[in-house]
Hints:
The chain crosses the membrane at residues 25-47, 62-80, 92-112, 118-142, 192-216, 250-272. The chain has 285 residues and is mainly alpha-helical.
Amino acid sequence: MSDSLHQSVWNRVFIALISKKLTRFCLLILLSYVLIAVFTKIGWLAANWNTEVGASYEAPNWINYFGTDILGRSVLLKVIHGIEVAMSVGCIVALLVMVIGVMLGMLAGYFGGIVDEVVVWLYTVVGTIPTMILLMVVACAIGKGMQSICVGLTLAAWTDICRLVRGEVMRHKCREYVQAASAIGASNFRKLFVHILPNILPLIICEVSVVLQFAIKYEVILSYLGLGIQNKPSWGIMISDAKTELLQGIWWELFFSTMAMFLLVLVFNILADALRDALDPKLKG
């Protein structure tokens, strides 16, 4: 595919995303989450989340907008730290899944034979293991924390993108542009990464957006179960702490942490659908 054609594809995607008010709003929300995560990571935001800012279980007010927890800490600052944790886990897992799944899928689809058989056997075996069981085994094996979450989620999520890439490479390797590259002496590396990969990149990007949602949701579940993030705020930990507080009428920690997660997952869902519609010509018309 020529550079001009690639440019037209991404121009079409950009126009499709900014042409609708809903997707523009979702992009703005996503950018806000990213900036909050970055600023929190480098210590510019919510660095003093563990400091007492009010009375225990203080309801939302003009001083503490999201109220306080049992120790008088700001729920708002804890939610902000939860954004940093969720975005960090999502981005790390998506990157690892993309590298592992794309590489194995391309090798299996292009070379076939024993390479294909090994990769297919591998993702079939891993795919039969229930996700929660796999995540719990990894947490018990290497301990709790972000490292355990990222390793477990990567092991659980790479199979789908590998299967997708394998099928697309098998379909593309017989096309005329790949045969033309072979005729002029292009190496396998060049055919894979210069000719085939750019043509399947849109599908990969759509699949990565699904992985991001998957990683964020399961990070919250693992933290809720006590197998995830330790010694720092997470939406899952906040939800776990709040389940007993509801009996006392203390709703704000559960409400704000849940709404922060709901909004992020909703934004990813809407943008993933918009990307799919813009990148898949079969859906047009």
